[in-house]
Amino acid sequence: MALDSPAERRDEVVQVAMGNGNGVAPLQPLRPAGRPAAATAPYLDRRLRLNPNAEHKPQDYSDVRGEYAPAVYSALERHLPPSLLDADRDVKLHFMRDILARYWPQGERNKVQRHKEYRQRILHLYKPLHEELYNMHPSTFFLPTFLEAVRSNSEESFRSFMTEPIPGVYSFAMLQPTFCEMLLEEVENFEKWVHAMKFKIMRPNTMNKYGAVLDDFGLEAMLNQFMEQFVAPISRVFYPEVGGGTLDSHHAFVVEYGKDRDVELGFHVDDSEVTLNVCLGKQFSGGELYFRGIRCENHVNSETQHEEMYDYTHIPGQAVLHRGRHRHGARAISSGLRINLLLWCRSSVFREMKKYQKDFPTWCGECQREKRGRQSQCVKATKMAFLRGAGGATI
């Protein structure tokens, strides 16, 4: 028995050599067939606000069905231009859909629909091994120290259990050993089931030939809570400049490294704003994660500075959190099997706003260096002008 062919395009790990950023191409807005032009025409030239209107209370979109979750529209509404905030909900909805459609043209929607059908067939036929994994149980999933820090919800509480070996990379103990074991067993059970049923399994991305997409066999809702309740509060504090405060979607998967699995992973950036990477086990040696600086699309292939180099050693249950644009790779496994949980967290608001920026000195290492260079040249030019003026003065 075989499933229909799944969507050809998966969420991709973007290889640095390709230099194509996070895979979002600037597209012209699309208006779905049948939509009245008058509904959005007065607002088509308006841009979203860079900073959300914290005092604005978004309308309820829980009854809206379609490609995006209601939370996406609620988050995006706070960024609408002031002239649109008091408009009818339908007008705001049309405007936001026009913006979101730039990232999801019709061809991609068709592929997503095929993938949705693929996923629905799996959910209909696959019987979970550990039912308790499919609903959020914080005390069972997370370590008490992590839960206490998240409940306190402050930078001080987060830093109390984290280490920051290099700027922007945070490491901390996160998952209970029992949760790691159950998730490993669930993934193994799913892979055995796929093999027995002769289904074609969809791999996490174009660079990993092993592993599984967790959202495909029923864990999407739990992992969405995982992101919203336990990753987003931390990202809001440490990554606001890359959309850490507006995370609204995710791609969750496991990767497997070993002698008979993927051995290593090349130098790349992720298709995410914030990436959570947690080692689940098992016994292994080697396979360190190496970091090489944060870059925007324009500088993704630029040289690495010495102070940007860092190697991270995986420990089961230990998490590492970093920007998706932080260039990294995985060294070769020398023995054993390493399996990691990856949660790519994304912000549609950040991706829209990024189109209007030319440089990113708040987070891109090369943009920062270029800005310092311009400032230094400006200071030098000012000094030279002053000296020339002083040299020609008479007393």
From TrEMBL:
<dbReference type="GO" id="GO:0005506">
    <property type="term" value="F:iron ion binding"/>
</dbReference>
<dbReference type="InterPro" id="IPR006620">
    <property type="entry name" value="Pro_4_hyd_alph"/>
</dbReference>
<dbReference type="InterPro" id="IPR005123">
    <property type="entry name" value="Oxoglu/Fe-dep_dioxygenase_dom"/>
</dbReference>
<keyword id="KW-0847">Vitamin C</keyword>
<keyword id="KW-0560">Oxidoreductase</keyword>
<dbReference type="GO" id="GO:0031418">
    <property type="term" value="F:L-ascorbic acid binding"/>
</dbReference>
<keyword id="KW-0408">Iron</keyword>
<protein>
    <recommendedName>
        <fullName>Fe2OG dioxygenase domain-containing protein</fullName>
    </recommendedName>
</protein>
<dbReference type="GO" id="GO:0051213">
    <property type="term" value="F:dioxygenase activity"/>
</dbReference>
<dbReference type="Pfam" id="PF25238">
    <property type="entry name" value="OGFOD2-like"/>
</dbReference>
<dbReference type="GO" id="GO:0016705">
    <property type="term" value="F:oxidoreductase activity, acting on paired donors, with incorporation or reduction of molecular oxygen"/>
</dbReference>
<keyword id="KW-0479">Metal-binding</keyword>
<keyword id="KW-0223">Dioxygenase</keyword>
<feature type="domain" description="Fe2OG dioxygenase">
    <location>
        <begin position="248"/>
        <end position="347"/>
    </location>
</feature>
